[in-house]
Amino acid sequence: MSSYIGKSVKRVEDRRFLTGKGNYTDDMVLPQQTYAYIVRSPYAHANVLSIDTAAAKAAEGVVAVFTGSDIPESIAGVPAGWQVDFKNGDTMKEPPHPLLVRKKVRHIGDGVAVVIAESKTQAKDAAELVEVDWEELDAVTDPRAAVQAGAPQVHDDCPNNMCFDWELGNPKEEVNAAIEKSHHVTTLDFVNQRVIPNAMEPRSAIGHYEVARDYYTLYTTSQNPHLIRLLMCAFVLGLPEHKVRVVAPDVGGGFGSKIFHYAEEALVIWASRQIERPVKWTADRSEAFMTDAHGRDHVSKAEMGFDEAGNITSLRVKTYANLGAYISTFAPAVPTYLHGTLLQGLYTTPKINVDVTAAFTHTNAVDAYRGAGRPEATYLLERLLDLAALEMGRDPVDLRRQNFIPAFDGVEQPGYQTQVALQYDSGDYHGVLDRGLEMVGYADFRKEQAEASSRGRYLGIGFSTYIEACGIAPSAVVGALGARAGLYESAQVRVQPTGKVSVYSGSHSHGQGHETTFAQVVADKLGIPLEDVEIVHGDSEAVAFGMGTYGSRSLAVGGSAIVKSIEKVLEKGAKIAAHKLEASVDDLDYAEGKWTVKGTDRSIAFGDVSLTAYVPHDYPEGLEPGLDFSSFYDPANFTYPFGCHIAVVEIDPDTGKVALKRFIAVDDVGNVINPMIVDGQIHGGLAQGIGQALYEGAIYDDYGQLINGSYMDYCMPRADDFPSFEIDRTTTPCPHNPLGVKGAGEAGCIGSTPAVVNAVIDALWKNGHQVKDIRMPLTPERVWKAMQ
Amino acid sequence: MSYKITLDVNGKKRQMDVEARELLVDVLREKCRLTGTHIGCDTSSCGACVVEVDGLSVKSCTTTAVQVDGSSILTVEGLASKEGMHPIQEGFKEEHGLQCGFCTPGMMMTTKDLLAKNPNPSEQEIREALEGNFCRCTGYHNIVRAIQYAAAKMRGESPASAA
Question: What does the alpha-carbon distance between residue A363 and residue A366 come to, in Å, rounded to a whole number?
Answer without folding.
Answer: 9
